[in-house]
Design a protein that fits this description.
Strand content: over 45%
Distance between the termini: 9 Å
Shape: elongated
Number of helices: 0
Number of domains: 1
Order of helices and strands: EEEEEEEE
Length: 94
């Protein structure tokens, strides 16, 4: 994913809200998915060429099951949250 501005909020003990904006003006968000593997959830934002009705914004609420200890973002798996520390995301741009 091109650079993005992310906001990560722990809404309660068992969920996160991840929102953001893709900085590539020619691209728009097609879908946001999550993949769970071995105690980790990885959030992936799928992009496509911008067209009418699509934007670069996304807002994704994700429940965190007891067996999950880490939530990351994108192909680089940038850490957003850990069970031990809570939200670990800073305003750096991945």
């Amino acid at each position: 994913m091109p650079q993005a501005n992310l906001r990560v909020v722990q809404t309660n003990d068992v969920s996160l809200e991840v929102s953001g904006l893709c900085f590539a003006s020619a691209l728009a968000v097609q879908d946001v998915i999550s993949r769970t593997n071995d105690g980790d959830i990885n959030i992936i934002v799928k992009l496509k060429v911008a067209r009418t009705g699509l934007t670069g914004n996304f807002d994704y609420a994700i429940p965190i099951p007891k067996e999950v200890n880490r939530v990351s973002f994108g192909e680089k798996r940038v850490p957003l949250w850990t069970r031990k520390l809570g939200v670990t995301w800073t305003n750096a741009v991945p």
